[in-house]
Amino acid sequence: MTPKHPSESLTTLTDLVLPSETNPLNNLFGGELLARMDRAASIAARRHSRRIVVTASVNHVAFNRAIPLGSVVTVEAKVSRSFKSSMEIYIDIWVEDRESGNKTKANEAIYTFVAVDDTGRPVEVPQIVPETELEKQRFEAALRRKQLSLVLAGKMNPHDATELKALFT
Q: Which residues form the HotDog ACOT-type domain (predicted)?
């Protein structure tokens, strides 16, 4: 399989925050943002693998900034690292100021998707070759995040988590 660059999976979704999508404080519901992130991450994973993909986990979500009614929200997702059949998708959420047009990073998330065949069995995906400094940082950190998830799920012995051990020795 030919390796791919993260930029090949880049998915950008831009939408407006409508009244039916807000809480009593007139901010975007967290669940609505999660759904938008899941859709963007799904498209990014499919672009990378060219297969059917399913959400395996939501590894991290940071709701750092409320997103008010009427805001223009941009969700950017791309594959940060791939493993055998799974792909880590890093998602950045941007809010555009209504008056100036300046974009500010509001939130971020990390999802994991698995590529599957028509029967739902996992299939191999291409590897990732990061290009930018940020892509390289996210690529390197992805293995630590994967090992931590496996250790916490009881699927990996902590002694075998070499990337995690390297942080502490």
A: 7-119
